[in-house]
Please model this.
Amino acid sequence: MTEDNQAVEIIIDHDRCRYSMYDPLGCKKCLQVCGAAVFATRPVEKRDFSIPKEQRVDPTIWVLLTPWEDYCNGCGACIRACSYDAITIKIDGVSLLV
Ligand code: SF4
Ligand code: SF4
Model:
């Protein structure tokens, strides 16, 4: 966790990110190197409101999320691990440089 309750914002550029749950060669490096377990994945939500809410996910397409970014310690390991320059981290509004 960062010091003095600093505000952490982790931005993933999903156009650049190569994460794919069903691609054996798909990238998951940021998840693997993050000791604080900030990252998570889940299936994509469908926007078809005609189907029941509990079925409104697509089990074949998953996305990478950062639901626990408050636990980020600013180590920068995920940024260094990302070969696609898809991660930006801001601490109190200032981009983390690694
Ligand atoms: S390391 Fe980069 S490309 Fe790989 S899953 Fe993480 S954000 Fe996506
Ligand atoms: S900077 Fe470090 S603690 Fe924060 S999300 Fe990246 S790997 Fe995890």
In short: The domain at 3-95 is CATH 3.30.70.20 (Alpha-Beta Plaits). The helical segments are 29-33, 77-81. Residues 10, 33-34, 36, 38, 72-78, 89 surround iron/sulfur cluster (ligand 2) (CB under 6 Å). The chain has a mean pLDDT of 90.
